[in-house]
Amino acid sequence: MADKSEKQDLAWRVIGGLAGLATAWAARKVIGFAWEKTTGKKPPADNESLDISLGEAIGYAVVMGVGMQVAQIVVARTARKRYDAWKSVRETAKEVTA
Q1: Quick one: pLDDT at residue 98?
Q2: With contact defined as beta carbons under 8 Å apart, do 29 and 12 qualify?
Q3: pTM score, two decimals?
């Protein structure tokens, strides 16, 4: 039978995974929108296409990579803080009622 810490670890993995998926989707949309407003062009769909300049392909890759990583770090840290706070409140409530 799984002990309490394994169940909590599994809960964090599920929460972290869902937060990661949502973050990646949202960051991609936001960065694509910002790219379009800044450059006046749609984000490159295929960076290997010769129709896109090398500078534009590299620029978009850098912006997307940095933006996605920053968004994931911020969301993961925030989610972890919230989860730990919720876990602490829950454990305190159990101690009070016991």
Answers
A1: 65
A2: no
A3: 0.70
Question: Which residue shows structure tokens 């670890």?
Answer: 9
Q: Using CA atoms, how far apart are residues 7 and 48, in angstroms rounded to an integer?
A: 44
Q: Residue 89 corresponds to which amino acid?
A: V
Cβ(35)–Cβ(67) below 8 Å: no
Could you give the CA distance from residue 48 to residue 44 in angstroms, rounded to a whole number?
A: 9
- The whole-chain average pLDDT of the chain stands at 84
pLDDT tens per residue, range 45-75: 887 888 888 899 899 999 999 999 999 899 8
**What is the pLDDT averaged over residues 24-42?**
92
Tell me how far apart the alpha carbons of residues 14 and 8 are, in angstroms, rounded to a whole number.
Answer: 10
Distance (Å, rounded) from C-alpha 43 to C-alpha 24? 16
- CA distance to 31, 36, 44, 45, 48, per residue, from 54 (Å): 19, 17, 11, 14, 9
Cα–Cα distance between 70 and 42 in angstroms, integer? Answer: 22
